[in-house]
Amino acid sequence: MMDSIIFTHKDQQYKTVFFETFGCQMNKLDAELSLGLLQEEGYRIVDKADEADVILFNTCSVRQHAEDKVYSHLGALKKLKKRHPEIIVGVLGCMAQKDGEAIFKRMPHVDLVCGTRMFSRLPELLLSIRNHGSHVLAIDEDQIVNVKRAVAYRANMYQAFITVMRGCDNFCSYCIVPYVRGREISRTIADVKEEAQALVSNGCKEVTLLGQNINSYGKGLSGNVTLGDLLSELNDLDGLERIRFVTSHPADMSRDLIRTMSRLGKVCEHLHMPAQSGSDQILQRMRRGYTAGYYCDLISYARELIPHIAVASDFIVGFPGETDEDFQETVQLMEDIRFQNCFIFKYSPRTGTKAAGLEDDVTDEVKRARNLKLLELQKGISLEENQKMIGKKVQVLVEGASKSDSNKLSGRTRQNHIVIFNGSADLVGRLIDVMIHEVTDLALYGKLENYP
Fold this sequence. Notes:
Rossmann fold; CATH 2.40.50.140; Transcription Regulator spoIIAA; alpha/beta; globular; five-stranded mixed β-barrel; six-stranded parallel sheet; transferase
């Protein structure tokens, strides 16, 4: 292992940390919050595990595949830990909350298991391990989550996630989130607005409001507070250019919220609202609380009021009891709605959920075939819809160099299209107009007018 830079802070010595995140946007924000806390305590962040004195994995439990990846990464660290026992290895987040002590039994070289409500105590937990030894378990289910953040630490200074609520009360039959994230808790509008203002003062131009079930924002707050009220307040913030929110549950999505979106100029014309299935029978078994017809009616209403809105979705294939007919109804829904993009997953049982008691009767072969069919269908739809953008001028918030071509810039439209185009570094963070001349199913390609 390379020599580490040691910082002296508050009469304690701190070293370097490697941090890898799996899963959703909430996990990514938790990573930002955690790393901000560690930086304030003197830690230096490194991008290679074998250069770190603390190795942390922020985990996801929504799919088995995500957990398998984490255990694979942990297993690969056994030799490193044996050579350098002073290294601290930690598992954070949803998998830590779900598996707890079992992680130590499966991976004895892990020192820390820190649940979803305890990441704000990360510096003191690491200090405890350094002073008193390993196998620290911190998964208090009653702990109030501290979302205080160092606003200057984020992946892109012009964009930021803001947690506005945590937890979920829906208990969909396949979903582990209510068990690892807890019940719904909302932050006050004043608290969220204060954080947004601090971010804007630090250069942020676009915020994405996060909640496991964001349409239920306001639950538990005094008065009849809604997500629409929060959006209206943030829409008035000087310097803030764009507002997004995820993730929407169809059963809790209201027409009133859609009307609010249509009248607020800073709220982007983009809606991520997972359908999960097009079959009413499967939706009922999933305990989703709506029908495919209800979902389609919501989308029709949104498109009536917000003509240029782009809609994204999630789908699960191979849910217990899903027949060929059920799957074909999902195919039909995708063809009817014509989503901008979709995340498509093969069903995997999650211990502790209602669906875990159902027979997992769809074979892996069928799951793979259905997954591939939906992916190919969505790819075709995305390409056809993107082709309609050729010859049009779009507004882009420039994010930085393109990952696929460092000589070009990348940004996003209000509808969340990725746009790649020619330009110089001084454009980063600006809102500019780009003329689209070429597309793929994943991105739009354009040119700046009057630019060499």
